[in-house]
Sequence to fold (296 residues):
Amino acid sequence: MTDPNGIGAHFGEPKARSLMVRPVRDARFSVTRLQCRLDGALSRVVSLPADDAYFLMFYFKDVMHCDVVAGESDSEIRRYRQGSICLVDLVQGASIRLVSDLDSLAFHLPRALFREVSEFSHAPAATGLRCRRGEIDDVMHNLALALLPLLAESENEPGPVLRHIAVAICAHLLHSYPDRATLSGGPDLTVWQEKAAKDFMIDHWAKDFSMAAAAAAANLSQGDFAAAFAALTGQTPEEWLMRYRIGRAKRYLIEKGWSCAKVAASCGYADETRFIEAFREVTGVTPTAWRARWLQ
Fold:
């Protein structure tokens, strides 16, 4: 299908495969498969026009890019990891400079769509989403993989499958990334400080480190960092790290078939008992029980 929002053309890929559906009523959901190759060029500037919508990118591979703001110097070039997302409000448009190849899915999500989904499903009332930069998101990873076969089909209409996935994506975003600033009066942690701290924790996730080091990555004291992180995300830094570690542990349990002891050692836990306790806290069951359910 021709890209209804011109996302592919904005990225220099006018023939990019795209899908569009109205999953609830009038507002439309669209997704575009982007595989941009710089082919020797140093960079490529991408500009999206202002719109009453959000723009969501899911990255299948690591990519490097920076923000471009008219009349200002480009921001710092940052790495966005495989399996992460960026979520941007298009109320004032958005521009980036790609400095590496891009392999991703791009979603155009009108605000009206979130209002419709919140009425249709059990999702929270749509009061706005907060900007995300390089947020690791395993749920979006699974939903993105489910979309790839639909995007690969050249003739068949995706029909109800795409509608179900569209609603699931919007409901997930509403549950996971509500704009808490509208309720709290604004967090002290900027999106870049949050990204720096989370990048530090991900880089050291399998090691025993002090949260003071993660706070330093965000250029904050440990106390200010902990308070701002919790106000913004609804989790303490320790809780966020635990959930990240358990997410990695699930992969090792299924994809590699490792023993609990080996998974515990590989995921930064001092012993198997502490790993099992953390796993149960996140999932409600032991690693052995979780793996048995998954394999059934």
About this structure: The CA atoms of residues 1 and 155 lie 9 Å apart.
